[in-house]
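User: Predict the complex with zinc ion.
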Amino acid sequence: MWMTLRVLGQRLRGRKVLYQYYTNVTWRTCEQCLAWHGCIRPWPEAFPDPQDGCPRQLLQFPVRELGSYRAQARLMGDVVRRELQRRSWFREAEATLHVDGERALALLRQSGEVDVYLPEVERLVNRHQQTLQANPELRDEVRSILLSAWREKFAQPRYERLPERMRLEHEKGGAHHIEALLDQ
Ligand SMILES: [Zn+2]
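Assistant: Here is the predicted structure with zinc ion placed in the model:
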């Protein structure tokens, strides 16, 4: 009912199209841009244009499709919440690896179930080089968690859109990189 009234309200104001904000949800998209992901507004000027390097796209759609775009916006919000949760797990793992290995491994596992990004893996390994060198068992665990998260990443639907050969090359290249980082 509320939705119907809202659509009607938009039409009465003579508006035929609306706009939805898209960014690309990755490890480096800033929180301000993530907060706009999926938001719907009546005109493009209603959105920020931070030009901060985060991808930004405004998608125009007919007012009569507001319902399905709002449903899409809810899914996009879920993706953003998962990414923010993933970051906080990964950051906590990074902060605790040298003092509480077990806890850090559990956090890495949780975060890897959402996604894993090579620049963050590099950061983690660089920060904890001494701990990892002194503790081969911990290093092996970290490597195996990150490798399986990496393989899982390429089994996700968004990677199925890549041509098979390219997907395999990305996957193999990344796996080699993780192995090299954690094989000291
Ligand atoms: Zn941004």
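Residues 31 and 84 are 8 Å apart (CA to CA).
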